[in-house]
Amino acid sequence: MAQRKPRYRVDLIGLQTVCETNYWRLLKLMPGMHDHSEHRLHVEAQDGQQQVLQMRVLERCRYTSTLQLIHQREHEWMSPPSMEVRLYHDAGMAEVVAAYNRRRFRGVYPYPNEQMLQPDEKFQLNQFLGEWLGYCQRYGQSAHPVIIQR
User: Fold this and answer.
1) Strands 38-44 and 93-99
2) What residue spans of 54-110 are helical by DSSP H?
3) Is the pLDDT of residue 133 over 60?
4) Contacts of residue 65, Cβ cutoff 8 Å, sequence gap at least 6
5) Which Pfam families does this UniProt record tie to the protein (predicted)?
6) Are 29 and 136 in contact (CB under 8 A)?
7) Rounded mean pLDDT of the chain?
8) Please, which residues bridge with residue 139 across strands?
9) In what order do the strands lie in the sheet with 38-44?
10) What region, left, alpha or beta, does residue 90 occupy, with left being phi > 0 and alpha being psi -120 to 50 degrees?
């Protein structure tokens, strides 16, 4: 007799923590976000290949901003991965709102599903953004000053 896996429950505190950390990482990587519309960060991969994180402001409002992050590499046979991130300045949080041609992620998805999304897809995307930004903070080089705190 097969045992049923317990239903996934959203870890709201964990998700908020990840989103708050991502907000501060983005502000450190793009300190002139309110004045400039684009910033490029050059990152050398472990194999020595140069990569670029392009950060572009798509929308500026009083309490929110929307950024597009594009990871450019030398592969011409594959389109560069990108995501849109909404920054909530009043709450100090950044949330992934679009990735791999999808918009608006729900907190929980039934599994299995036709879209092949994980039950915690929203959490995983935001956690991936944090890992990506952390890597860029450690190994990135910028023509503009980047704020680094240790």
Assistant:
1) unpaired
2) none
3) yes
4) 33, 34, 57, 59, 86, 87, 89
5) DUF1249
6) yes
7) 83
8) none
9) 102-103, 93-99, 82-88, 64-72, 50-60, 38-44, 140-142
10) alpha
